[in-house]
Structures are given as C-alpha cells and as structure tokens.
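Lecture notes, structural biology module. Today: joint structure prediction for complexes of two components.
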Amino acid sequence: MTVSSSLSRRRLLALGGVSLALAHFPRGARAAAARDPRLVVIVLRGALDGLSAVAPVGDPDYAAVRGSLALSPIGDKRALPLDGFFALHPSMPVFARLYKEGRASVVHAVATGYRERSHFDGQDVLESGHAGPGHTESGWLNRAVFALESTTPARLRGLGVGAAAPLVMRGPAPALGWAPQVLPPAGEDLAQRLLDLYTHGDPTLAAALRAGLDADRIATSGGLTGDVAKARGGMDQPNGMRQAAMGAARLLATPDGPRVAALAFDGWDTHANENSLLATRLSGLDGALEQFETGLGEAWKDTAVVVITEFGRTARINGTGGSDHGTASVAFLAGGAVRGARVVADWPGLKTNQLHQGRDLAPTQDLRSVLKGLIADQFGLSAQTLAEKVFPDSAAAPPLRGLIAG
Amino acid sequence: MVIGSDPRGALIALDRFGLGAKPGDLAAAAADPRGFLLEEIRRPNVGRLENASLLPSNVALQALFADQQARRIERERNIVEKTTRISMAEPGAAMAASGPAAPPPNADSRPKPQEPPIDQKLFRAEAMARFEKQASAQAGFVERLVAFWSNHFVVSVAKGQFVRVAAGPFEREAIRPHALGRFADMLAAVESHPAMLFYLDNQRSIGPGSAAGRFAGKGLNENLAREILELHTLGVGGGYSQQDVTALARIITGWSVAEAESEIGEPGSFVFKANWHEPGAPVLLGERYPQTGREQGAAALAAIARHPATATHIATKLTRHFIADAPPKPIVEALAKTFRDTDGELSAVAETLIESDLAWSAPFSKIRTPEEFLVATARATGVLPTDPGQYLNMLKAMGRPLWQPPGPNGYPDTLDALASPEAMKLRLDVAWQIAQRLKNIGHPLSLLDTAAGLAASRETREAVSRAESRPQALAIVLMSPEFQRR
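The predicted structure, tokenised, for the full assembly:
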C-alpha cells in the first residue's frame, strides 16, 4: 500500500516515474504517560459521496463523469483546494483550515470489505468490524476498549452518543451513554424531587437517574451558544450534529471521563438533489469538527477524530441530480494528534474500465487498515489483537501506521 | 375496596402481567386477579388486530412495488431530459453549479409534502392501530405476549422500505393469530412471512446445487437459518453446530417472496422457488429430511419447534421478561414442562405462568419498557396521542423506535439496559413532555390512585402533593417507582 503525500502513485508515475518514499512514520519513543489520547469515531449513515466531499478535480475524467455534481476550483461555488489534485467541498471551511494547519488529512478510495450495496448490511460491516454482514452483537470500537482494559492500568471508558448507542460502541465493555436533547429537558427541580423520592424507596433508580443527569450536566455545561442552543435538530441537521459533538467533547475533556466516543450522523443517502443536501450535511459535519476542537480544549492535541461511512456512491450522476449506492468513498481524519495536510490515496482513476464494476469509485485502501492504524498509534494495541479481537479475520489488512503524528 | 379482595394481586395482574391500570381496573381485578387474566386470554381471537385501514402484507407490498415503479419511470424520464439539456448547454456550464444553489428542475422526484411516502403512511397506520389496541385491552396481558413475541421474532424497519411496509402486517399475520396458539404454527408463519424472509435475506438464498444455483453461480445465505436456531428456537448453547446451520439453510432454500413481476406467485407473497431449492436430503440435528420441496422446510421447522432446547429457551425468555432478569428456576421449569407436555400450546404456557405462585410473590424487580410506559400512561390518563408521530417520536427519543431493534436479537430485556443512566434521564424528559400536554384529567393524586391504588407509598403521595405545579405533579406520578416498576 502506498501512502503518498496527496499525489497518487499512478499519477506520479505518469508524470515521469518520480520515486516516492513511503510515508510510514511509526510513533517514536515518546513518553506514553505524557499523552492522554482520545479517539472519536463519527459514522455517516447513508453512504457519503466521497467524490463530492473530496473531489479529484485534477482527474481528467472527473468533470465529465460528475456532470452537474462536479466541483470546480474556479467559479462562485469553488471547491477548497487541498493540493493540486484534490479539492474539498466548499461547505467544509473548518476542515480546510485544519488541513492547512497540519491537523487534518483525508484517506480516499477507501472501503470496508463489503462489496454489496445494502445500507443495512454495509453499516453492520462498518461498525461490527467483521468481514461480512450478520454480526450485530458488538462493535470494533467497543472491543478495542475491552482489549485495552486488560493492558492499560487506568480504565479506558467508551461513550456512545445517541438514544441508542451506535453498534460500533456496543459490546462487552460498559460504555457511558449520552444523547443530545431531542425533547425539551425536564427541569432541575423536577429531577431533584424525583431523586429524593427514589433515594427513599428505590436506590437503583436513584443511582441510575443521578448518573444520567450528571453526564448530561457535563455534556451541556456552560450551555450552548448561538443557534446551536436554540434548535434541537435531528442527527441529519447541522445543529443536531454540532450539539452532539459539543456534548461528546465536554465529556471527553473531563479528567476521569471517557476516552473514546462514537457518534452517528444521518442523511447521507443522496439519491436526489445531492448538491443541496450535501451542502447542509457537510456543513453540519464541519461544524461538529469545530465543536470538538473548541470543546476538547487542551485534550484536542492528543485527539484523533475519524469520519467513516458504509460505502460510497456511483461515479456517474443519476437522473435526479444525485448518485446511487456505490463502493469506495473517503475517510476524514482531524485532530491535534493527526499527521495532517495530506490526502492518502492510491488513486484508481475514473475511466469506465477503472471503476468498480464499471460504475463505482474502486477501493484501493481497506478501511480496516486505517482504523487499525489509528488504534495502534493512539493506544498501542498489537497488530495481533487488532486482527483477532477487534477486526476478526483481517490479517490481510495490516494496520496503516503513520496516520498519527509521531 | 371490597372486603376479601386482593389489591396486591390486582397490581401484579395489571403491572407485571398487563399494561397498567385504566380507571377502575384495580378494583375490577382485585376480586380475582388470576381470574381477571384468565378471562382475558380465553376470549376468542383476543390477540387479533384487524381493521379496514390495515392492509394484508401482499396488498401493502404491491402498493410499495407500484410506488417504486412509478419513481423509476420518473427517474428515467429525468435522465432523458437532463441528457438533452446538458448536451445543449455550453461546455463546462454544468461544472459551475456545484453548490446548493439552483438544483435543476425535476431534481427531486419525491412526492409533494402533502402526501407522505407510502411506506410511512402504512407504517403509521399500523403503529396507531396497535397502540389503540394496547391502550384499550382489558389487562393487556395478551398484548404483552404479542410484544414479547414481536421482540423474539424481530424484524427491523431499518432494513428499508420493504420491511417498513411489511412489519405491521407481519405482527398481525404471523404473531397475533398464534400468541395463544401453537408455537410450531407461529414459527411456521414467521419463517415463511415476506417480512422475515426479506429481513434475514432468505429471499435471495439460492441452493448451489439447484438449477438456478448451477446456472448463476450464486449461493446460500445462512442468515435466516442461523437466527432460527440461535435466536428463534434452540438458543445459544442449544446443541447445534455450524453443519446444522448450513443444513437448515439448504433446507429452506427457495423460501422467498414473489417480486412485482413474478409469474409464479402473487406479488408480495411467500413463494417457493423450486428451481432455487437445493436438492438432497440433508441431516439436521441428527435427523435426515427426505422430503422434497417446501415440505422439507416445514418438516424441519416442526421438529425444531418440538426440540426440548426450544422449550427451555422460550421458557427462560418468558420468565425473564415477566418476572426477573435472573429467571427463577421453578417458573422456568414449570413453563418448559407445559411447553413440552402440550407440544408448545402457548395458551397453556400462559396459564402456567398465571398459576405460578412465585409469579405473584416475586418483588417488582423490573421496570416497564419505553413502549409499556407510554401505553400505561395512555391507559391511566385516558389520553391517547392524536397523531402516531408523537408516540413514535417518544419511543425513538427513548432509544427504542418501533420495530427497529439494533439486531435480530431484539431489544434487551434486562434492568441494566432499561434503567441505564441515559435511559432514565431520557424517560424523565419524556414524562415531562407528556405531563405538560395532559389537560383536564383531574387531580394528580387521582391519577396515582388509578395506577397504584393502595400500593402508592406515603412518600410518593407527599411528593405529588407538594409539587409546585400540576404538570410537575403528573410527571412525578408517571416517574414514580409505583408507575415504573413491574
């Protein structure tokens, strides 16, 4: 696997056979105690169109294939250039800034091992970490936490955001749960009266309610500002995404709080009217990343946020200004711990014979390698544990090291 | 209260077995709590739910197929128009339109807002009819059994429009008629229902040695077979192997759903695709199945239904649901024995549970599920949501959207999941929402009397009396241990 500094190997070869140093930078002998790493996983449900999110504007076939969905480095809705080849969707200025600062990167043409096109099964594969569908009892992030419990002295805790924790965070390791407010909250006075009542007659319910209120207090401490506070958007709306990220960031920032978190944002299934839908969703994702940056404070420097989706979309647009279920997409990485300012890609090209089954962006990078690399670099889990416990039957997809700054 | 009545028994009948008291229910049940429940389960067709607005699954699925077809045509028409338009435009003109501005006309082929998508319309009608039935049931024991089986033989609407349309009919057609009938009949109905065949992918499982398999090079999908053994019947540790899973998968190849254009079956109905069926006589759990065609699967399911491990698995789950997370052994054994002795007669199993003394003396160690909580609230207050969306949103807010569990093992049924910190906080927010919407329902203390009667503690009465407002008092009633525990 080639990790290039944004220019693809094939393009470089085309440009004259420039040799390329493999950008593998294993973490140095840094004092482990000095770091307090965090890992945030954001699952985009519905299959993000990677070709719209991070557009290969330098690919000669791109504009023709994408038609009305094509982004351009020029014009009034111009894409944000990442390098000479890739440009970012204009709705993500925060990510563009982080990228420039060396705190964000992109992995392109990436996919899980799943090669069919059902959201349902695709998400199960993405989150369970298994090679195929049919496993919903636990997720890879939870199993990573579970595996770490035996190796790390301080207990590492997980956080699942949402009324039901995403599958990736469910499993044998107990995890904290917190959901951004979808209903107006009950007042503190009512909560206190109930706590008093429970304390008297039902200590189990008292302990549970108290813990739930505490988590929520931390997550919403200091309140939310501006329109984030006002609206209670769902997880497919910018406000909902930012609220979820803000709460998660505050819980992750507390000294004895959770260290890994999972969130899921909805609404990426852009079969129609993709231009307008993606602008909304991506600005929500961008806002969420900003909330993590500000909300984590000091802890941001040791944090990696990874944004993943179950599969990509068709290279060509369909008849309703959208795209249909495809194969490879992008993964975003952001955070102070990320070795940024690059697009990691072995670019497959967009000519019909280069597309997967003649229709989808072809996968050239196994997403499991990316995720295994992140866990290995952030928490030091061995390749063996990762291949057996965390991502079963994934020995053929070794950890991709060097995504985290050394 | 009548002298000699059993107020504690009435509470058990309505809370542990049922869906909570409506006004007057506690008094009605107190004379003979066991008889109150037996009377309900002996009513003819008590579990059925039928009304004119609810479509049979094949009709509902045909409506979906027609809707999908109409959209396809619309989309193809758009492609033709767009191709024409782009070829006429200036080169590069399409590239500039990359932002949210000015989507092309006809970009969105979805129907106008006044007409919800067909799957949503049917789903909401099903949800509302079900909620009304739960809220009006006598004790609600039968509805609890229906919900139990629906969470046992679970399908998830997250699979897509197909299951979203078929989930309601699935419960009405495969679960309800058999909730007080024979387990083997329910199993046969469930595993051949389009909703289940689609949810667990059997509709596209093809025997590798079948005519279609040899031709297309496609193969088995073991998903449904595995869940039948692991979740629906024998249970984990029920003594089956991977070979048994594969054998059962082969046996039920060809169990599928007739597509919109099908020539061999009514679209949206079960169909046996003979040319997908794996030939041969596989051995399943030590038994050879020489039958051919659909009969092979029917015989296998009948045998699994009668397997002793199935009796124990079902008895354990029922006891865990109704009595305690750590199911008391005497109850499990009594239920399993009845199950075996009656060849899975579920009305007899329900009667055994009612007759168990332990079921009436065990402490209230569980709490209501979010759904039971909303139904109990509607029963006690007499106020039902006017719009199913309200009810569905609250279930979603509490992390348990209707017919949408995280996996084929259904929603967890234990206290640590139901009363997790997050779940309790979300439940409180929901209670507060409901309490603010309740109008004209009298004194909050009378709501407490309706729901808990003499069992309401002095502390709860005081907390309700001292509340600073009527909504706060109502929320305290709804969140009180007396209302939550069962």
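Point to remember: Residues 160 and 177 of chain A are 5 Å apart (CA to CA).
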